Amino acid sequence: MLRFEHVSKRYPNGTVAVDDLDFEVAEGELVTLVGPSGCGKTTTMKLVNRLEEPTSGRILLAGEDIAGVDPVKLRRRIGYVIQQVGLFPHRTVLDNTATVPVLLGRGRKAARQRAAELLELVGLDPAVYGGRYPDQLSGGQRQRVGVARALAADPPVLLMDEPFGAVDPVVRERLQNEFLRLQREVRKTVLFVTHDIEEAVRLGDRIAVFGQGRVEQYDSPAAVLGAPATDYVASFVGSDRGLKRLSVTPVERGDLEQPPVVHLSDAMATAQERMRAEGVRWAVVLDENDVLHGWVSVAERSGPVSGTVAEHARRMDAWLPLGSSLKSAFATMLQYDAGWIAVLDEEDRLLGVLTPTTLHEALRRSIDADTRSVERAEVELESVSGA
Ligand SMILES: Nc1ncnc2c1ncn2[C@@H]1O[C@H](COP(=O)(O)OP(=O)(O)OP(=O)(O)O)[C@@H](O)[C@H]1O
């Protein structure tokens, strides 16, 4: 969709802001450009909407060299969201959002209707906020209006330059999550500039890690964190990259452990036999509807125990849907102070459990898989937790 071919930009004062950029952003993909201050991120964006011209190389949008496209027409196909949102202070939120469609010749009524839908989409009730002026909004709300406005012309490409840079970390995380939800709906091709590796990892389908004007690595977040291409990338993503990686590695079926499963109504003696036969000290307990109830441990004293599982079971209903991040799995374990958590499918059926050991193995396998470019399920670990 958007292709950089050996693009360089040298400013008249001799600064080489961008040096031989060569990568492609697929349609509907969100690519984060991350790097320290002055590494050429903003310049890259400006080259895309022709606020700057490359010194060499070319940029193709849907196969067409943008150097031959009238800049005004080009910018209609490219939404631009910047940190200082640049809303018109004397226009209402609704009119700010409708600005571009009106300029594009849509009727005022249709444009306002679309603007209201977009405000709704970015989480601002148009009935509440539509009539307000920008200075009657919080910073986070202004950012959302900026995003709604950029989407109003329905451009296939969005450029977002540190759009959430000016808000506090809590609001920032909320905006990021909302934007991810929105992006799943609208599927724009997005270039998103940030200097924050956490943000880059959370949002990006792929990340371009910038050194001085050059892309040092262009890869999935998991690969950038798990297998940094250069020392520079390794130091930029930080020594806690293993921890960060937890948040971008999903729980897969192959990661799960399968302890014995018993029901509340089973005889405890039978449950005990099952655990002994499988050589484990506990079993997952489900109720009569196969809903997670908790766990039961093999009794310490020898000999059969009387009664049903219900009389011995303990409640523990920490669970996660399959596909959750390893980080949320770990966080849930800590929150419940639990040695395991259940992983459920879409119909809330038990698929297996995750323990600290299997969680660690999942992380190691995913790193191995990225390093060797294979699926995680194909990776056999040589040793299990050092054993
Ligand atoms: N118009 C200009 N003329 C000369 N040099 C410029 C111009 N614009 C940017 N530069 C220089 O080009 C380099 C890259 O700047 P750019 O704004 O692209 O970086 P950035 O990665 O977006 O930085 P930041 O995160 O601080 O915004 C910097 O050294 C900057 O000083």
Automatic annotation (TrEMBL):
<dbReference type="InterPro" id="IPR003439">
    <property type="entry name" value="ABC_transporter-like_ATP-bd"/>
</dbReference>
<dbReference type="Pfam" id="PF00005">
    <property type="entry name" value="ABC_tran"/>
</dbReference>
<dbReference type="InterPro" id="IPR017871">
    <property type="entry name" value="ABC_transporter-like_CS"/>
</dbReference>
<dbReference type="InterPro" id="IPR005892">
    <property type="entry name" value="Gly-betaine_transp_ATP-bd"/>
</dbReference>
<dbReference type="GO" id="GO:0016887">
    <property type="term" value="F:ATP hydrolysis activity"/>
</dbReference>
<dbReference type="GO" id="GO:0016020">
    <property type="term" value="C:membrane"/>
</dbReference>
<dbReference type="InterPro" id="IPR000644">
    <property type="entry name" value="CBS_dom"/>
</dbReference>
<dbReference type="GO" id="GO:0015418">
    <property type="term" value="F:ABC-type quaternary ammonium compound transporting activity"/>
</dbReference>
<keyword id="KW-0129">CBS domain</keyword>
<keyword id="KW-0067">ATP-binding</keyword>
<feature type="domain" description="CBS">
    <location>
        <begin position="313"/>
        <end position="369"/>
    </location>
</feature>
<keyword id="KW-0813">Transport</keyword>
<keyword id="KW-0547">Nucleotide-binding</keyword>
<dbReference type="InterPro" id="IPR027417">
    <property type="entry name" value="P-loop_NTPase"/>
</dbReference>
<keyword id="KW-0677">Repeat</keyword>
<dbReference type="GO" id="GO:0005524">
    <property type="term" value="F:ATP binding"/>
</dbReference>
<feature type="domain" description="ABC transporter">
    <location>
        <begin position="2"/>
        <end position="237"/>
    </location>
</feature>
<protein>
    <recommendedName>
        <fullName>ABC-type quaternary amine transporter</fullName>
        <ecNumber>7.6.2.9</ecNumber>
    </recommendedName>
</protein>
<dbReference type="InterPro" id="IPR046342">
    <property type="entry name" value="CBS_dom_sf"/>
</dbReference>
<dbReference type="GO" id="GO:0031460">
    <property type="term" value="P:glycine betaine transport"/>
</dbReference>
<dbReference type="InterPro" id="IPR003593">
    <property type="entry name" value="AAA+_ATPase"/>
</dbReference>
<dbReference type="Pfam" id="PF00571">
    <property type="entry name" value="CBS"/>
</dbReference>
<comment type="similarity">
    <text>Belongs to the ABC transporter superfamily.</text>
</comment>
